[in-house]
Design goal:
Blueprint lengths: L2 H17 L3 H18 L8 E8 L9 E3 L2 H11 L10 E2 L10 E3 L4 H9 L2 E8 L7 H6 L11 H10 L10 H9 L11 E3 L15 E4 L2 E2 L12 H14 L5 H25 L12 H14 L1 H4 L3 E8 L18 H23 L5 E7 L18 E6 L8 E3 L21 E2 H12 L6 H4 L18
Parallel strand pairs: 1-9, 1-10, 5-12, 5-13, 6-7, 6-9
Antiparallel strand pairs: 2-4, 3-4, 5-11, 7-8, 10-11
Helix pairs in contact: 2-7, 4-12, 8-9, 10-12
Length: about 475
C-alpha cells in the first residue's frame, strides 16, 4: 500500500468516526466546554447540588394520592372510582397557596408528607406524563399528533420517563445527560457523581459518566475478599490482585484487568470513607426505600471527601402495579396502596430531615417518577394502566405548599379523559425534568443538551423550584 493510499484510508477512518458522532453528542461536548469555562472563570464551585429520583415501579395510582375535597369534585371522583373511592372523611385537607377553584386532600397515609407540604418543603405536580408534543383528547383520538412509543407499556414507559425522549429509541437517560454536562463541577471522578441504590437503570445512562451501584447496606464488593494478609480470604484477594495487575499481551484482557482492579480499589476506598462518617441521628423506615434513602444521605455526608459538588442519585421501589387487592375490603383507607404511600411519605420525610441534619436541605431535592398513572375507573379490585399522573417534589429549595401544573377534570369521558379515566397529560415529563435541571445548574442555552424535546412545550420552568 502506498503512502498516499494509507493517508487516504486514515482520513476516511477519521471522517467515519466524526460522522458517527450524533448532533446531540456534539452539542453535549460543546455545552460541557461552556461549563468548563464557567468553572475556570469562577472561584471554586462550592455550591453543592444533588438530585434524588425516586422511581415508583409499576405505575402509582395517583388518583388516590390527591383527591378532590369539595362537594361537587368529590362526587365526580366517587362516581368514577366506585369501589376504589376513599371516604371523604379520611382525607388530609390541603390549603395550597394558589387555587384552581377546587379543594384537594391527600391520602390519609401521607401524614408525614402533608407536614412538609404545610411547612413549605414539599410541592405537588398535577397530571404529568410522557408526551411527544402538547396533546389534547381530540388529537389523541384522531391520532393527529405523534404519541409516545408503546404508550401504556410498563417497560417502554419506564424508559421514556427516565430518558425524557418519548419519540425515540433509548440511547441515554436525562439524568445521564445531565451528569455528562455538569460533571466538570466535580474535582474528583474516582467515584461517579451518578449513584444508583437499586441496580442499573435507564435514567443515569450517559455517554461519559458511568453510573455506580451501591447497596443500601454499603458498597458492592467481591464476595470472599479480605484485607487480612494471613487469612485464606486475604491470600486469595492478594492472588487475584496480582493476576489483575500482571502484564498481558491481549489488549482486551489488559483493559478488563485494569477496570476490575480500579473497581475493587474504588469500592474499598468508598467503604473506608463511609466507615469514617458520623452516624445519622435521623431515624429511617426499615423498608427498602427507607434504607436506600438512608444510604443516599450517608453518601451525601461524605461528598467533600469524594470531591463531589454535583450528585445524582436513583432509588427504586416496586409493587405499584395494583391491578387487584389495591384496597382493604373492610377499610378502603388501608391495604396495599396505603402501605406503599405511607412508606413513601415517611421515607421522603426522613430523608428531608436527614438533609436538614447535614445542613444541606436547600441543596438536595428529591422527586418522584413512575411508569404512568392509572385509570380512575376500577377493574373490580384494582386499577389499570393510565397515562397522566401526579408527583411529589421535596427539598428546602422547593417552593412548597402548592400544587403546580393543572389537575385534571375527573369526569369520565370528560375533557381530559381518553376513556376509563385515563388522563391525557397537561404537563410533559420534559417540563418537569427541565425545571429540576435548571435548579441543578443547567442554563437555558444548554437545556436542549439535556432535554432535546423541551422546546416543543410551553414551560421549561414550572416554577416549583427557587432560584438559589
Amino acid at each position: 500500500m502506498s503512502s498516499s493510499s494509507h493517508d487516504w484510508s486514515r482520513r476516511k477512518f477519521i471522517g467515519s468516526c466524526c460522522a458517527a458522532v450524533s448532533a446531540t453528542g456534539l452539542l453535549s461536548a460543546l455545552a460541557q466546554l461552556r461549563v468548563l469555562g464557567a468553572v475556570a472563570n469562577s472561584s471554586s464551585p462550592s455550591d453543592y447540588r444533588a438530585l434524588v429520583c425516586l422511581f415508583l415501579l409499576g405505575g402509582n395510582d395517583a388518583n388516590n394520592l390527591i383527591i378532590p375535597n369539595d362537594t361537587s369534585g368529590y362526587a365526580t371522583y366517587a362516581t368514577g372510582r366506585t369501589s376504589l373511592a376513599l371516604p371523604q372523611s379520611v382525607l388530609l385537607g390541603l390549603n395550597p397557596k394558589t387555587s384552581d377553584g377546587r379543594s384537594w386532600g391527600l391520602h390519609p397515609a401521607m401524614t408525614s408528607l402533608k407536614g412538609l407540604f404545610d411547612s413549605g418543603q414539599a410541592a405537588l405536580l398535577g397530571n404529568v406524563g410522557t408526551l411527544c408534543a402538547p396533546t389534547t383528547v381530540a388529537q389523541y383520538k384522531a391520532n393527529s399528533v405523534p404519541l409516545p412509543l408503546q404508550l401504556f407499556s410498563h417497560n417502554d414507559q419506564q424508559v421514556e420517563w427516565q430518558s425524557s425522549l418519548a419519540d425515540k429509541a433509548f440511547a441515554t437517560g436525562w439524568g445521564g445527560r445531565l451528569a455528562d454536562l455538569t460533571n466538570a463541577f466535580n474535582s474528583n471522578n474516582r467515584i461517579s457523581m451518578s449513584i444508583s441504590l437499586n441496580g442499573q437503570n435507564s435514567f443515569q445512562v450517559g455517554q461519559n459518566v458511568v453510573q455506580y451501584s451501591v447497596n443500601p447496606s454499603g458498597t458492592v464488593s467481591l464476595s470472599g475478599s479480605s484485607t487480612s494478609p494471613t487469612s485464606a480470604a486475604g491470600i486469595r484477594t492478594q492472588a487475584q490482585s496480582d493476576i489483575l495487575a500482571s502484564p498481558n499481551a491481549n489488549l482486551f484482557e489488559t483493559a478488563f484487568g485494569n477496570i476490575t482492579a480500579q473497581s475493587v480499589s474504588d469500592s474499598s476506598m468508598l467503604s473506608s470513607v463511609l466507615a469514617g462518617a458520623p452516624a445519622l441521628a435521623t431515624a429511617f423506615p426499615t423498608s427498602s426505600l427507607g434504607q436506600q434513602l438512608k444510604m443516599i444521605a450517608r453518601l451525601i455526608s461524605v461528598r467533600s471527601q469524594l470531591g463531589l459538588n454535583r450528585q445524582i442519585f436513583f432509588a427504586r421501589v416496586s409493587g405499584w402495579d395494583l391491578h387487584d387487592n389495591q384496597l382493604s375490603a373492610t377499610d378502603p383507607s388501608t391495604g396495599a396502596h396505603a402501605t406503599l404511600l405511607g412508606d413513601l411519605s415517611d421515607s421522603m420525610t426522613a430523608f428531608y430531615n436527614a438533609t436538614a441534619e447535614l445542613g444541606v436541605q436547600n441543596q438536595v431535592t428529591s422527586f418522584t417518577a413512575s411508569d404512568f398513572g392509572r385509570t380512575l375507573k376500577s377493574n373490580g379490585d384494582g386499577s389499570d394502566h393510565g397515562w397522566g399522573s401526579h408527583h411529589m417534589i421535596v427539598g428546602g429549595a422547593v417552593k412548597g405548599g402548592d400544587i403546580y401544573g393543572k389537575m385534571p377534570d375527573l369526569t369520565i369521558n370528560g375533557p381530559n379523559d381518553t376513556g376509563s379515566g385515563r388522563w391525557v397529560p397537561t404537563t410533559s415529563v420534559d417540563e418537569y425534568s427541565a425545571t429540576l435541571a435548571k435548579w441543578f445548574g443547567v442554563s437555558a442555552t444548554d437545556m436542549a443538551t439535556v432535554l432535546p424535546n423541551v422546546s416543543r412545550f410551553a414551560n421549561a420552568d414550572l416554577g416549583f423550584m427557587s432560584a438559589s
